[in-house]
Amino acid sequence: MGPENPNRPNYPLRPAATPFASQQSSTPFSSSGPAVGSEAPAFRPGPPAASNFQAPPFAGGPLVGTEVPAFRPPPSIRSGEVVGPPPPPSYGPPTSGFQRFPNPPVSSAGQVPPPHISLTGQPVIAPPTRPPPGHASPFSHPQPPLVSMGSPPQIIKTGQPNPNIPPPADQRFSTPIPRPSSQPSSPPTGTSYPAGRGTYPGYPNMQPNSDSQAPPMLPASFQMQQGGYGPPMQSSFPLQRGYAPQAPPTSLLAQQRGYAPVPPVSTSSGLYSGNQFQQHGIAPAQQSLAEDFSSLSLGSVPGSYDAGLDITALPRPLDGDVEPKSYADMYPMNCDSRFLRLTTSGIPNSQSLASRWHLSIGAVVCPLAETPPGEEVPIVNFATTGIIRCRRCRTYVNPYVAFTDNGRKWRCNICSLLNDVPSDYFAHVDASGRRVDLDQRPELIKGSVEFIAPAEYMVRPPMPPLYFFLIDVSISAVKSGMLEVMSQTIKSCLDSLPGSTRTQIGFITYDSTIHFYNMKSSLAQPQMMVVSDLDDIFVPLPDDLLVNLSESRSVVEAFLDSLPSMFQENMNVESAFGPALKAAFLVMSQLGGKLLIFQNSLPSLGAGLLKLRGDDIRVYGTDKEHTLRLPEDPFYKQMAADFTKYQIAVNVYAFSDKYTDIATLGTLAKYTGGQVYYYPNFQASIHKEKLKHELTRDLTRETAWEAVMRIRCGKGVRFTSYHGNFMLRSTDLLALPAVDCDKAYAAQLSLEETLLTTQTVYFQVALLVHTAAAPVVADLGEMYRLADTGAIISLFSRLAIEKTLSSKLEEARNGVQHRIVKALREYRNLYAVQHRLSGRMIYPESLKFLPLYGLALCKSLPLRGGYSDVQLDERSAAAYTMMALPVKSLLKLLYPNLVRVDECLVKTEEFDTRKRLPLTVESLDTRGLYIFDDGFQFVVWFGKALSPDITKNLVGEDFATDFSKVSLSQRDNPMSRKIMEILNQSRKSDPSYFQLCHLVRQGDQPREGFFLLTSLVEDQIGGANGYADWMVLLFRQVQQNA
Amino acid sequence: MDWLPFIWLIFSCMNLTLLGLNFYEFLGFSDLEADFLNPYELSSRINYVIVPEYLLHGALCILFLMTGHWIMFLLSLPTAYYNLKQYLSNKHLVDVTEVFKVVSTEKKARLIKLGFYVIFFGLVITRLALSVVSTVFADDEDIVAWSTIY
């Protein structure tokens, strides 16, 4: 797509959008004082800070989706209750074509079939989904995976027993078969899917209770379950959409009929809705059977209607990120998954097992993740005793340490060393080994705590928070309006900067010369000093360039007020960025702090000048291509290293419409724990709110200063590599001059010993102290079962982005693909022997979204296409951003939310964010209005046939005009209010970035293509595979050498 | 023939220095891994000696060539080539920001070079000894003949 950003035209400002900013600024984030850790991970320093901690105003990561209920039901056997708790919805096992069946039939061959399965009926249950009326998209339900096989609405059948049901071989029904309670749990043999399995010895009594439970009417969409018995065997039916009962092989029919005599119409639209069934009554054993794997049938199979795969049946994360719950249930004292996620919570017990796991063993850590109100991390002050840590490995006391010797000693859970309990910390231990004072010791109950660090943990006393601004004032900065927006924003944030009266602030501006500002409190106006000797930078008046904000408040405000006008006439196009950077370094090196750089053009003078290398088309596509993504001049790396050494964090704001070499400038942020904000072609009229929100958040969010972070783990495993924005100070110590809630770090670990002897591996992240335990497993299947797609994708994206720095984009994409293929192949090999798998692709329930996210990753900005698909700067900026994104934001970026809003605008119903649609053009109905939200921007898509009324209400009279010039603002009508409310709601739930709203009309190229069509990851875009093709491709590759 | 022992003496000194430099670098990387050294110190120390090391090795090569010791020259070529390649691709200096990613490969490279210099040193010392012997016993024809074979 063309280089130009379509939105160039200006949008009028949108007034409505502002709420964010203001809100934010008022919150007091407490940044805390600087803590430092020397070796100790830094804590936030106590005093000043701690007191103000409040819950951040923003709610934590918004998950939009609902969460899936427990992932897998607890193993315990539930006695016959079928209906039980809603077990996991979709996790069922899989099998037949596409669908996963929740509960495989019990009787597998080897087992003794329970004599009768009583189906207690549970006929269906899924809450009725509403069939999407008229809507084009077939998927109405959020939960993707399952295909509903349609058995007709059950309702009917409920009361009737069907004595004879033929043993159906067909799978398509997913039935929950309740097991009688009496039945001991039959071992879930994995086998449940053997093809033959079908015979159920009849379900003689099925229904006795069904009535009671069955809701009287089931909406059509639910069909599935009831029929349920079907063993899922054969995979082959691709799901057809609404499958009418009669279609299938006769045996099926019979069965079905049995149950449901009258098949109501299953509508085609309902297909999806079926998915949920599983929830109901799954007996435990079955459940476990069911969990073996999920599958998708790809080959054409006799009996199926269409060969190949049914697109609608592919798994889609329409519920957003779903974290594995079973793991959290297993170790309730672990820290929350928002802080630490493992790619698999089953740590392999041997190197040979680890080598069969191709998805990297690792963790994604977001040490300061925002917590929702009510779940704040407890703060512990060990002022009297000193922080209790293991003598040898320096682990902090945590819920997993064991107190022995009547409470006089404690055993470190990481290195097993027996430590003395200091007398002040002593408490008796009761008979069960618990300390009697447990309830007053949050550090012994909670996985996450914050210790107040005493002075010995700091290399130097806490420095005042320091904010330093390095501002480009060349012509483009002035013209674009950046200068004005920035000055206003900074001014509005002065009250909410962390640090209260200690905060220091300073400014340098530059074009072809460097301008320093003396802002001593005794002056009425700031005094500007110009240094034009770029070769030998010196700092005039070193003492007055950094001033205490509260003392010099009026001077600072005067400066910010006059800044835009001061340079209004500036025609200078040069940028002495390198020398200015050095000057900033000289000023800041005493105190450390945060440096914000506002850069509008390519650095052109003095040290660190950069060339217009991005224009050199000849390099693209060659072996040298990757060098364009690497920093060009070692000056920047060296500066970044020096900044980190002196505890300076750098955030880069880049605004140019031309090539600015973000790849090089970004290194400053990368190695100092900072962030890159990129506003291509900045226009104050369009991007004002975005810059304002993001700058405000940057300045006011809770920040830990001068931190170091280390992840400790038990014997036998070791973290070998780290990925993200930071600099390593030693092999396992991350130096983070400033760290906040929007930064996450990934790490890979490896086994040091060939065999692990322990049962559990513990991890402890020391910044805030987060502790987690993970079981050691001996079985590959168990590792797959405990896998976490979100963490895996997060790690993969970082590895892939790092790979783009040393090889071509295509190789990076292939790397992702190969890993997925290898993992699926290995998984297939686990089951290929016991099950007939031909024509089916199988994957663990936990990884059902992995292929889709992998595809989305390959289509994400840093990896997409070739050189012409994305501008180099955008690619680099996106890469730097993705290297720091927490898991949830990353997943949302990869698979954005697409929701239809016209219906809810017209009616008065509540907007339901959960009705997300698959990201394909087919989801878009020309009569609809859709919102696309990837966490960084909104795209509002207007269908061609959308009622003019809606358009008129939303964008005013001029609805026929060019949408690039129109913005969505609040108008005086309910529809407009409602949509603004929806947008603001989403913004509030995801405050890390500001989602600028772009309006797009169907068919309005290239705007539509640029904003929306290229982001529909399931479609074929410019040579990249669509979802279905991708699955087929993966399937073929998995088959090879399988 | 009188100058020959001196030349070999110079060679052996140079070789010894190279050996020392490499060992120093190797030690630096080991210390970094063991956390006895931080990356900043490591990079400033190593980057300080790396160019001199390359120059010294280059000088050694050229000296071998100029004094007509073909075999020794050829033996020293691979290392010289490696050095040159590193230098030309700008990878010779330690990058302080990414040093932990390369520490194991750098260590391995240093170890191989160390081995190379040790062997080389053995050869040089032998030649030194032979040249001394041949000079001292210049009149002993057998020895002279034997030593010039090399």
TrEMBL record, chain A:
Residues 125-145, 177-187 have a biased composition (Pro residues). GO terms for cellular component: COPII vesicle coat; endoplasmic reticulum exit site; endoplasmic reticulum membrane; Golgi membrane. Residues 19-32, 223-234 have a biased composition (Low complexity). Residues 387-425 form the Zinc finger Sec23/Sec24-type domain. Its main location: cytoplasm. Residues 704-768 form the Sec23/Sec24 beta-sandwich domain. Residues 788-891 form the Sec23/Sec24 helical domain. This is Protein transport protein SEC24. It comes from Salvia splendens (Scarlet sage).
TrEMBL record, chain B:
It is found in: Membrane. The keyword Transmembrane applies. The chain crosses the membrane at residues 7-27, 54-77, 114-138. Keywords: Membrane, Transmembrane, Transmembrane helix. InterPro entries: Cornichon (IPR003377). The keyword Membrane applies. It is a multi-pass membrane protein. GO terms for cellular component: membrane. GO terms for biological process: vesicle-mediated transport. Coiled coil: none annotated. Belongs to the cornichon family. This is Cornichon. It comes from Salvia splendens.
